Amino acid sequence: MPLETPRAIRIASVAVTCAFLALPALAETAWVKGEVQVNLRSGAGRDFRIKAALSTGDRVEIVGRGEGWTQVETASGVPGWIPAGYITTTAPAIVALKQVEAERDQLAERVAELTQTTAALQVDTESRAQRDAERDAEVERLTHENIRLRASTRWPEWLTGAGVVLFGMLVGAIVAGRSGRQQPRIKL
């Protein structure tokens, strides 16, 4: 017994819906390619209502594929169909350019940060070099002062040596005077 047309359509739409619910596991990222604007339709064909317009560089997720049509979901979550020839799985140049520009901006910010850090480190290095020079001069001054102080503390040694010599001369004179012998005198 043949199925009635509205019932067949309902069964077919339920089957298609079930099939499409199972398809998100096949999702892959793609972009609208070329310098175009393509209509996102509610079904696979030109007879279906237009839901949105997609432009070059718009990102979509591929949900399924039909004959000449690809079912997609936009980045904002709008599902629909577009002709298969208008998408590519490689990012178009405009998307790559935006990514490169964003990276360039991040790198420019990083360079500015590093430039500030470098300037601060140079100031710190110069300050440390000046402190090191001041410390070296202080060490040199203290070394000379230490040498002078050591030399001035030797006077007790000198006095002790002079006292020993004088004591020796005195003892020699006493011993010579007691021996009774006269020493020839040296006249200067």
Quickly give the structural class: alpha+beta
Order of helices and strands: HEEEEEEEHH
Radius of gyration: 52 Å
Provide the low-confidence segments as ranges.
none
The backbone outline, from C-alpha atoms, is rod-shaped
* Percentage of residues in helical conformation: 40-55%
Widest beta sheet: strand line-up: 6-5-4-1-7
- What is the level-2 CATH architecture name of the domain at 25-90? Roll
Largest sheet: 5 strands, antiparallel
| Annotated CATH topology of the domain at 25-90 | SH3 type barrels
Considering the chains and any ligands shown, give keywords for the structure:
188 residues; alpha+beta; SH3 type barrels; five-stranded antiparallel β-sheet; two-stranded antiparallel sheet; 3 helices; 55% helix; 19% strand
Explain what you see:
- This protein has helices at about 5-20, 95-150, 155-180; strands at about 30, 35-40, 50-55, 60-65, 70-75, 80-85, 85-90.
- It is α+β, with helices and mostly antiparallel strands and about 190 residues long.
- The chain has a domain at about 25-90: Roll (SH3 type barrels).
- The strands form two sheets. A five-stranded antiparallel β-sheet has the order 6-5-4-1-7, with no helix packed on it.
- It is rod-shaped.
- The termini are far apart.
- The mean pLDDT is about 80.
